[in-house]
Amino acid sequence: MRYFATSLLLSMTLLLSACNTTPYDKATIYYDRAQFPAQLAKDYPGLTGPILQHGRCSLIVSTPGSNTGTYYFCTYALTASNLYVQGWDAKALKYVEIAHVDISALKNIALHTIFRTSQLQMTEERRQLALSASIDEGGYIDSSATKELFEAIKRKGIPVVKSEGMISPPAGPSPMIIPVVITK
Asked: Where is the signal peptide (predicted)?
């Protein structure tokens, strides 16, 4: 009985220690769906035209042909001719640009889907972007919003190509084990 109680206590401690109350993207990127267009227009005076679609996202920026790149939590806003991707500067209380994509300058786009995860891949002359829309509460990929964004850009006449696989952020550091063999 004592071992059962100890193992139960250890199991509960392990389970509760892994809890995360707020998704990291929600904690680092401010996003209020109702106020977002007005806030973005204030932070980007050059923003022209109405915002057709917007939301939270994760973005990977890399070079064309690469399958890894720099990872950002972000928000996005699609207008008739541009896609604005921005992060949040908590000190200045405003959005800061991560990427500005002129849709007419895109060479091609692709949609890569694995189970419930979708990634919109956009290739320019010298840059490749992989964007996945997230739900408003953060923490989960919104596959349907990513597909809607893909369809909206595809309707602009951008060539669609087959994806060569998911573009991923760099792998985290891991310990390196080097066996040392000492002969006698």
From this structure: 1-18
Contacts of 75 (CB under 8 A, 6+ apart): 29, 31, 36, 54, 55, 56, 57, 85, 86, 87, 88, 95
Task: Name the token pair of 108.
Answer: 């091609």
What does the domain layout of the chain look like in residue ranges? 23-154
User: In Å, how far from its chain's centre is CA 141?
Assistant: 8
> What is the reported pLDDT for 15?
61
Average pLDDT on 89-97 reads: 83
Distance, CA of 16 to CA of 184 (rounded, Å): 49
Q: What is the SS3 assignment for 52? A: coil
Helix or strand (DSSP H, E) at 133: strand 128-134
Q: Which of 57, 111, 118, 117 is nearest to 84 (CA)?
A: 57
Q: CA 32, CA 168: separation in Å to the nearest integer?
A: 27
